[in-house]
Design goal:
Length: 345
């Protein structure tokens, strides 16, 4: 009987939502204004989220943002950016049915799913912020696995949040991502990438002299496509959905002028910038690069192939064929974001 009832429930929800996949069920629910105000009585802090393609400076941005005495930011919660997503808390059909059941007098006759998701994530975020003595809190999680879908998922639960999207020159981003895979995921590499990794360790000079590509042709083509898709979708939806609560910025501008960049970000988040010692705290944080230190310690021969965190590192590594391949896919997007003026590079 339980199995029959479950099938009946699935059929009923399919009629209601048009799709019985767990993520589709959960993503169809939207928190409303009354629910937001009710949740804020318990979790009053303003929230923000940082998205960006992998290796685009999201961690650096989070580190710099949180030197402000009012802001806490941590990373990789992946509420909306990587499966199983926050929606997995309510995506089981039986759980979803329970939260919306008419006989459940606690739900006031409608689905409690968005409230449950919001309360769970708010608690996770504010618990850490309270410990840190901060009043504004955010999470940074790269969204390149789901691209624009992350924005759609976010707005269903946090239409009142602020969204920051950081973009990095796609050539540097995909290069750094490739090195990261060589360091962190050697057991998951393809046979071709494993061979490249061994060559980097044994004869790095052939890559530094641009004689051999650090990518497979198919790998670079896919990486370029993925970068374009992430940047285009996220920026388009961020502007369309969040409007004045959306801020896009470039990693390179933060590196070039961190004071002006962070003032802009902190003002966007609604906190003052005339704080005693704030510039010194920012300078101190900028003097550190824990990610680079960790990578060098873990895999020094691989990590030393590129200059960590410096714009334009791709120029030391990309072969002529790499340039042609990336340009064919991402040339227009590089121009759109001001990384090139034309196709003559």
């Amino acid at each position: 009987m339980d199995r029959v009832y479950q099938r009946f429930t699935l059929a009923a929800r399919a009629l209601r939502y048009g799709d019985v996949r767990p993520h589709a069920i959960a993503s169809s629910t939207q928190i409303n204004e009354q629910e937001i105000q009710e949740v804020k009585r318990f979790f009053p802090m303003d929230k923000f989220f940082i998205f960006g393609h992998a290796r685009s400076g999201t961690t650096l941005l989070a580190r710099l943002i949180r030197v402000h005495p009012e802001i806490h930011c941590n990373w990789q919660a992946h509420f909306f950016t990587r499966p199983p997503f926050l929606s997995s808390l309510v995506s089981n059909p039986e759980v979803s049915e329970w939260l919306s059941r008419k006989s459940n007098r606690w739900n006031r006759g409608y689905d409690l799913s968005p409230v449950v998701m919001r309360a769970a994530s708010d608690f996770i975020l504010e618990r850490e912020a309270v410990r840190a003595g901060k009043t504004v809190v955010g999470d940074k999680s790269p969204n390149n696995l789901v691209n624009g879908d992350a924005v759609n998922r976010l707005v269903g639960i946090y239409p009142d949040a602020k969204l920051i999207f950081i973009v990095r020159d796609g050539r540097d981003a995909v290069l750094s991502h490739q090195i990261q895979k060589f360091i962190d995921l050697p057991d998951q590499l393809s046979a071709q990438d494993s061979a490249i990794r061994r060559s980097i360790i044994n004869a790095p000079e052939q890559f530094l002299s641009e004689k051999r590509s650090i990518f497979t042709p198919a790998g670079l083509h896919k990486a370029a496509n993925d970068w374009v898709k992430n940047v285009s979708e996220t920026d388009h939806l961020g502007e369309k959905i969040y409007a004045e609560s959306y801020l896009s910025l470039r990693f390179e501008d933060i590196v070039k002028d961190p004071d002006a960049s962070l003032d802009r970000i902190w003002n966007f988040l609604g906190v003052g910038t005339a704080q005693p010692g704030l510039k010194n705290a920012l300078d101190q944080e900028l003097s550190q690069n824990p990610d680079a230190d960790w990578q060098r310690e873990k895999q020094q021969p691989v990590a030393n192939v590129i200059r960590k965190g410096l714009p334009g590192s791709w120029r030391d590594i990309f072969t002529a064929e790499d340039i042609r391949s990336f340009k064919a896919v991402a040339g227009d997007t590089l121009i759109e974001w001001g990384y090139e003026e034309d196709m003559d590079w």
